[in-house]
């Protein structure tokens, strides 16, 4: 069985958000267009979201109380649970999504495999229950959460393909390094899809 994982296509990670990635809104549109033509190719479509606690440093993940974020381990507050910034970007058609994973509740969390579904299961459990053997990964940001999620998927033995046309990274150098790391880990990296 083949599944699609849509990583963190949220308002705060798109243009105008508190931690915007250039091209994020376009990625949301590309994913929706892709799903209109290809959703039937997948037995399961999963989407993850950062879902951080309000009024908390989330174990140092947020720079708070006037501290400057280092953009490595600490970040500006983003994707606070229940906020507009944590919502999926409006260009992403949510009707295709069968399973929602929330991550980062009270702590830093980059991989969708660190989150839980609305019914309390891990992503690994969801994929195992659905007998998924191949996973396509898209979303934001290539060099952080897409990278971490794809690497964790690969560790489970699933065949992983990252569809870069539907990803957006923070910086060219770190995105290139992430794609090289993914390939080294045995993930396929596909730059264009029909």
Main sheet overview: 7 strands, mixed
Fourth-level CATH superfamily = Isochorismatase-like
Count the E strands.
7
Overall spatial form: globular
Distance between the termini: 20 Å
Q: How many structural domains?
A: 1
Mean pLDDT: 90
Structural class: alpha/beta
Low-confidence residue ranges: none
By CATH reckoning, the class would read Alpha Beta
Sheet-strand content, in percent, reads 15-25%
**Looking at CATH, which topology would you report?**
Rossmann fold
* Radius of gyration (Å): 15 Å
Q: In what order do the strands lie side by side in the largest sheet?
A: 4-3-2-1-5-6-7
The CATH architecture comes to 3-Layer(aba) Sandwich
Secondary-structure element order, N to C: EHEEEHEHEHE
Percent of residues in helices comes to: 25-40%
Number of helices: 4
Topology:
Elements (H helix, E strand, L loop, with lengths): L1 E6 L16 H15 L5 E7 L48 E5 L12 E2 L5 H7 L4 E7 L1 H14 L3 E10 L3 H13 L3 E3 L4
Parallel strand pairs: 1-2, 1-5, 2-3, 5-6, 6-7
Antiparallel strand pairs: 3-4
Helix pairs in contact: 3-4
Pfam families: Isochorismatase
Keywords: Hydrolase, Metal-binding, Pyridine nucleotide biosynthesis
Protein name: nicotinamidase
């Amino acid at each position: 069985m083949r599944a699609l994982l849509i990583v963190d296509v949220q308002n705060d990670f798109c243009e105008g958000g508190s931690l915007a990635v250039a091209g994020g809104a376009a990625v949301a549109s590309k994913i929706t267009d892709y799903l209109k033509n290809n959703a039937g190719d997948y037995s399961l479509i999963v989407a993850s979201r950062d879902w951080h606690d309000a009024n908390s440093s989330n174990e140092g993940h947020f720079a708070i109380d006037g501290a400057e974020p280092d953009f490595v381990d600490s970040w500006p507050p983003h994707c606070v649970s229940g906020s507009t910034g944590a919502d999926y970007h409006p260009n992403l058609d949510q009707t295709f999504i069968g399973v929602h994973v929330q991550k980062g509740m009270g702590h830093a969390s980059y991989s969708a495999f660190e989150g839980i579904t609305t019914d309390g299961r891990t992503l690994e459990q969801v994929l195992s229950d659905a007998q998924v053997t191949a996973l396509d990964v898209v979303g934001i940001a290539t060099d952080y959460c897409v990278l971490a999620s794809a690497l964790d998927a690969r560790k489970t033995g699933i065949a992983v393909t990252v569809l870069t046309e539907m990803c957006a990274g923070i910086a060219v150098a770190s995105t290139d390094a992430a794609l090289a790391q993914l390939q080294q880990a045995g993930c396929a990296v596909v730059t264009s899809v029909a």
